[in-house]
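Re: that chain you flagged

S.,

Sorry for the slow reply, it's been a week of failed gels. I finally had a moment to sit down with the sequence you sent. For the record, here it is as I used it:
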Amino acid sequence: MRGTAGFTLLEVLVALVVLGFLMLGLTQGTRFGLLAWDRQARGVDRRGDLDAVDRALRRLIEQAEPGAGTSPAPFAGESGALTFATELPLSAGALPTRRAEVELTVGAGHRLLLRWTPLLHAIRPTPPPTQTTELLSGVDGLELSYLGDGGWVDSWKGPALPALVRIRIVFTKAQKRHWPDIVAAPLRERP
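Prediction finished late last night. Pasting the structure tokens below so you have them in one place:
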């Protein structure tokens, strides 16, 4: 009856081998999880600014002023720049008015710029200052097109807003970035 009080050497070795396999599986699973997390975080960092710019540009274009009565819509678009009147978001800061004339263009140093000037109802002795916000860096150019009754065109200057505005952001080759076209529908008439 002496042999029933403990484990044999073979049983201890089998238990250690099974424990080793479990530790190996947990280690590899944790390593894979950390690598996936790191890759996703790097992807979000690369895309994060693009998502914000995408949402901001869509909102500004969707809020473009359609004009009223006999006055045409204040909207002029070329293949590389766009100017229109719109309503700025609340995050633009403390302003006397949310209405502004905005210009989307690519400036020096491969920067996508949004320039905006408040549209005030009062006549001021000096014009309101133009604010410039850098939306993205590493931008080689913009390819803008506008959907009208005759299809897509490279420029727009008419009494009404286009049905759609398509913005293609072209990045520099060093950036190795690509973003799908931004397509937004301006409000064609006041509600």
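What I noticed first: The first strand starts at residue 75 and ends at 77.

Talk soon,
D.
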